[in-house]
């Protein structure tokens, strides 16, 4: 009889270190987020397919570059002129892909399940923006990168999809194979804020 395989979060072996960091650095909380269903969506933003997707998700596709918006249980993230990342915390990944694919197929669009491609790390608190600025070349001041902004950028030496959820609240989507590197970078960079006796 074959062994049963259980899915393990790519940052499972760093949870304790991230929790310990959150406990010892005041103004900073860092943790790996639960996996979500994610679909890469392609459709003409000016065509009827975009309206159909908006009706299906309950919100219009964000068409302004580097922005994102909420859906009922996830996010719609602008990736390019005709490309979005759509996430759902409650959907089954394959069913989510099938539903969105059905909506856009009549409009020469596509929907591809990319749930296993990325995982996410959450940083929030008064030091979150300052910590990110140690390894990110973007201007992260609230006036330049407010809530609702997103960017595909580097943090440390890995590419992330960075979302500003609030003034001091960020979600970093990272490819699963680079998740450990990103967590280690955060742990190392946060030493700047550690209070030494």
UniProtKB/TrEMBL annotation:
UniProt cross-references to SUPFAM superfamilies, sorted A to Z: Folate-binding domain
Pfam families: SoxG
Protein name in UniProt: Sarcosine oxidase subunit gamma
Species per Swiss-Prot/TrEMBL record: Prauserella endophytica
Lineage of the species this protein comes from: Bacteria, Bacillati, Actinomycetota, Actinomycetes, Pseudonocardiales
